[in-house]
Design brief:
By secondary structure, this protein is of the alpha/beta class. The chain is about 45% helix and about 15% strand. Bound molecules: pyridoxal-5'-phosphate.
Length: about 425
């Protein structure tokens, strides 16, 4: 139903807009490549380098280094960037007439497209600037009383934890941190870790769907079911999971979810999504007041003043691009890229992969530590000597180097990384 209404809206608006040819061009090329392999299982397609070369041709990475740090944000495909730039030129040409006559149409088209992708109602989706804003909106916007409790984990994202700490300091809310297992043997083990933090005063639990430090994917649905059975609401941080391991918010059955879209949806920079279950919208105060809208209207979360809608248009291309590859194909490829290096390296002495082994518990993001080697020195060595760009992590629980291939990464780059690990083991004795 939502898919249909999205297409109807897109049909109405896109005919008049200059970016349609770009949108069609990219998705037609990618769809043709995918259609030529129809019937091929995602796990088999994941190993088809010729197919992934066709997809990679839609990106334009820098030639002077090898990017194995697609985790901060994932570069947009060139057609997405072009759609955004064309829209930016259009906005500046038409100036305030655009804002006064067409802006809302672009907001609605982006909302419909995203809701369709996420399998939820457009009346539950707000387009924000990033995960930080979406998650802050919920934590700061919920009325919690002094002494009421929020449960979170020792591996949640730094700025999310800081938002919780500010909430505690400002309103007397109590925080309860639980310790997550690094390589759980069952979903139940993870659920039990969260439940260990619950008390009768627990009102909210914050769950990171994919841990940015290790790439571990958590069983969000099982956590939501267990929390709901105890009258506790769930806020999901899906910054790394959305359009990577999953796009279906409906299946998670959470109450609130925040994600960036410039990570794994490969959208223009500065785009995020906030999902709030319909009956919860009125409970959450928006960051920026908008008293003209009903408290139940999801659009109240989009009152951000003047912002560039060029990104809203670019996101339509990003969604078409994602759909043309196919979410399952993309996930299988990203898992394959990670598993190829992790499986080899984890058997070597002194090399410890901090990412779970089981395929369903990881995607592209992975973290490696070499015993006795400072992560910063290691990442620096790989960049200086091998031109491989990775991300060193210095975190109380996780010390290692994060290695994140992306959609355009060829398997040859993974092979280079494996060689670089071997070289590092010889270099740092
Ligand atoms: C788990 C997690 N949550 C939230 C964020 C914040 O995302 P953004 O900076 O796009 O708001 C990040 C960013 O890396 C993240 O990894």
């Amino acid at each position: 139903m939502y898919r249909r209404s999205f297409l109807e809206t897109l049909g109405k608006t896109s005919l008049a807009l200059p970016w349609t040819s770009i949108l069609a061009g990219a998705s037609v090329r990618v769809s043709a490549a995918t259609a030529a392999r129809s019937g091929v299982e995602p796990d088999v397609l994941a190993r088809d380098e010729a197919f992934w070369r066709e997809i990679a041709a839609e990106f334009s990475p820098a030639a002077d280094f090898i990017n194995l740090e697609y985790g901060y944000y994932h570069a947009a495909a060139v057609p997405t960037l072009e759609a955004e730039l064309r829209a930016a030129r259009d906005l500046h040409r038409r100036s305030s007439r655009y804002k006064r006559t067409q802006m809302r149409e672009d907001h609605e088209a982006a909302r419909l497209a995203l809701a369709s992708l996420a399998g939820v109602s457009p009346e539950e989706v707000a387009v924000t600037r990033n995960a930080t804003e979406s998650i802050n909106t919920v934590i700061q916007g919920l009325d919690l009383m002094p002494g009421e409790e929020i449960v979170y984990s020792n591996q949640d994202y730094g700025s999310v934890v800081e938002t919780l700490e500010q909430k505690a300091k400002r309103f007397g809310v109590m925080l309860r941190e639980i310790a997550l297992p690094l390589d759980p043997s069952s979903d139940e083990e993870v659920v039990q870790a969260y439940l260990a933090g619950f008390t009768p005063r627990t009102k909210l639990v914050v769950v990171t769907q994919m841990i940015n430090l290790t790439g571990q994917v958590l069983p969000v649905r099982a956590i939501c079911d267990a929390a709901h059975a105890r009258g506790v609401e769930v806020l999901v941080d899906a910054a790394h999971a959305f359009a990577h391991v999953d796009t279906s918010i409906a299946e998670l059955n959470c109450d609130y979810l925040g994600t960036s879209l410039h990570k794994w949806l490969c959208s223009p920079l500065g785009m995020g999504l906030l999902y709030v279950k319909r009956e919860k919208i009125s409970k959450v105060w928006p960051f920026m007041a908008d008293m003209r809208l009903a408290a139940t209207d999801i659009r109240k979360f989009e009152q951000l003043g003047t912002r560039p809608e060029s990104a809203h248009r670019g996101i339509l291309t990003a969604i078409e691009f994602h759909r043309a590859i196919g979410g399952a194909n993309k996930l299988a490829r990203l898992r394959y890229l990670h598993a190829t290096w992790a499986q080899k390296v984890r058997t070597w002495p002194r090399a410890r992969v901090l990412t779970p082994r089981e395929a369903r518990r990881h995607g592209a993001v992975g973290t490696l530590m070499i015993e006795g080697v400072d992560p910063k020195s290691l990442a620096q060595y790989w960049f200086n000597e091998h031109r491989l760009f990775t991300a060193p992590l210095g975190h109380p629980v996780i010390q290692g180097v994060r290695v994140t291939p992306g959609v355009p990464t060829p398997i040859a780059h993974i092979d280079l990384f494996v060689e670089a690990v071997q070289a590092a083991l010889a270099r740092f004795t």
